[in-house]
Design brief:
Elements (H helix, E strand, L loop, with lengths): L1 E5 L3 H12 L5 E6 L2 H10 L4 E5 L7 H5 L7 E6 L5 H5 L5 E4 L4 H18 L8 E4 L3 E6 L2 E6 L5 E5 L2 E6 L2 E6 L2 H7 L5 E3 L4 E4 L5 E2 L3 E4 L2 E4 L2 H12 L7
Length: about 240
């Protein structure tokens, strides 16, 4: 898998390059200090993954990510926590806080590698085959999976695919997140950001910005926050 690095700070670019060199099956093919030069490079080169800073002069990383081709994955690298929720609104697959630790970096790369393999595979026949009162049939990788609603922890949308997380298993199918959300029971499936739908029955805890399901942390988008809390959290809180 190849990658490019986009950051206006030379030391930050060197730090990511060092992490790449410590990671198997990942190669840096270019690095840039801003969006304009990167845009020209992406127009003429196939890039699997972009490590993208957010706060840069001129066009910032969030704005630039909206212009990156669908076939290229984005991992944000930033010193600021407050952009995390917004980053998932532009289909970033991960969000790394500087200084980035090797273990956390490699976890993001592993996720990116999984998605790269997905995009290179023909999934044109993958979709939801049938839906009943408490389960669905989903086509994925030449098989049809029966999935009970109660087993779904959450669903992640990435470009034209959705990933259904079922504890130790995940099922990937060709469908956008809006379409699958319309098919699920609204009584306990709620969309909490552009990229995530959660099963409220499997929530362990929440705070103002995050839903915690087991070891998974799902960001809450700004435009979804009020509805989620008013309909699924506030009215359920026990009071004296």
């Amino acid at each position: 898998m190849n990658c490019i690095i986009v950051d206006d700070e030379p030391l930050a670019r060197k730090a990511i390059q060092k992490l790449v060199h410590q990671t198997e099956n990942l190669e840096v093919i270019a690095s840039f200090n801003g969006a304009e030069a990167t845009k020209d490079f992406l127009a003429t080169n196939a890039v699997d993954l972009v490590f993208l800073d957010i706060q840069m002069p001129g066009v910032n990383g969030i704005e630039f990510a909206r212009t990156i081709p669908k076939s290229t994955l984005v991992v944000f690298t930033t010193a600021y926590h407050e952009f995390a929720s917004e980053s998932y609104e532009v289909d970033a697959i991960d969000y790394l806080i500087k200084p980035v630790k090797l273990e956390r970096f490699q976890k993001a790369v592993e996720k990116a590698n999984t998605y790269c393999k997905l995009f290179r595979t023909d999934h044109t026949n993958s979709n939801i085959e049938n839906i009943t009162t408490d389960y669905i049939f989903v086509r994925s990788e030449r098989r049809i999976f029966k999935i009970h609603f109660s087993d779904i922890l959450y669903i992640e949308g990435l470009k034209d695919y959705v990933i259904i997380y079922l504890g130790n298993q995940k099922v990937i199918t060709l469908m956008n997140i809006k379409t699958i959300h319309e098919l699920l029971p609204k009584s306990f499936f709620v969309r909490v950001s552009k990229s995530y739908i959660i099963n409220v029955n499997n929530i362990d805890s929440v705070d103002n910005n995050t839903v915690y399901i087991g070891k998974n942390e799902i960001p809450i988008g700004n435009i979804y926050r009020d509805y989620f809390f008013s309909e699924f959290v506030t009215r359920k809180i026990l009071s004296k």
